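Ticket #188: bound-state structure for S-adenosyl-L-homocysteine.
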Amino acid sequence: MQTANAVVMAQRFIKPKLLTASLVVDATAGNGKDTLFLADSTPNTTVVWAFDIQAQALTKTNELLTKHKLADKVHLVLDSHAHMHQYIKQPVDAAMFNLGYLPGGDHEVSTSSETTIQAVSQTLQLLRPEGLITIVAYPGYEHGRVELQDILHYFTSLSQKEFTVACWSIVNQKNSPPILYLIEKNEE
Ligand code: SAH
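RESOLUTION: The complex was predicted; output attached.
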C-alpha cells in the first residue's frame, strides 16, 4: 500500500513548525483536510487563517472543524488568497497551498498561476525566519501543468540567500503524480 504522497508529505514536513506556531495559513481550504490538520497540530492559542473562493469549500471546512471542536481558532475567509495581505498583518509561521480544483466540485474553478504566485509572494513577505510554506502542484492535467511550470519559474528566481526552495516527488508512478514544493525562510 502507498503510504506517502505529496499531500501527506506536506503535513509531515510542516508538522515540526506547528508546535510553537502563533499564526498559520491554509491558502486553499478545499475540503478542509489541511485546515483541520493545522488547527489540530498547533497550540490552543494559535490562530489559523483559511482562504477559499468557493462558499461550498468553506462550508465543508467549517463542518469538519466543528465536528472536531476546532472551529473557534480558525478564521475562514471567502476571498482569494491573492488578497491575503488585507487580512493578515502578523508574522506567519507556516502556510499550506494545495493547488488545483476542489475534488467533487467544479473543475473550472481552479487555482491559477498569477494569483498563486501573488499569494505565495505575500506569504513569503510575512513568513518568519525558519518558517515554511508547502505547495502541492498537480501536473497530471493541462491547466495544472501550466501552473506548475509558471510557479516553478517563480520559485527558481527566489534569492538563495533568503530562501531555500526544495521539492519532493514520487519518481516511479504513472500519470504525473502531484509534486510538493517546500520554501523555507533562512535564518537571519
Ligand atoms: N487538488 C486538491 C484539492 C485542491 S482544492 C486535491 O485533489 O485534493 C483547491 C481549492 O482552492 C479549491 O477549493 C478552490 O476553490 C480553491 N481556490 C482556487 N483559487 C483560489 C484562490 N485564488 N484563493 C483561494 N482559494 C482558491
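RESOLUTION NOTES: The domain at 6-185 is CATH 3.40.50.150 (Rossmann fold).
TICKET STATUS: resolved
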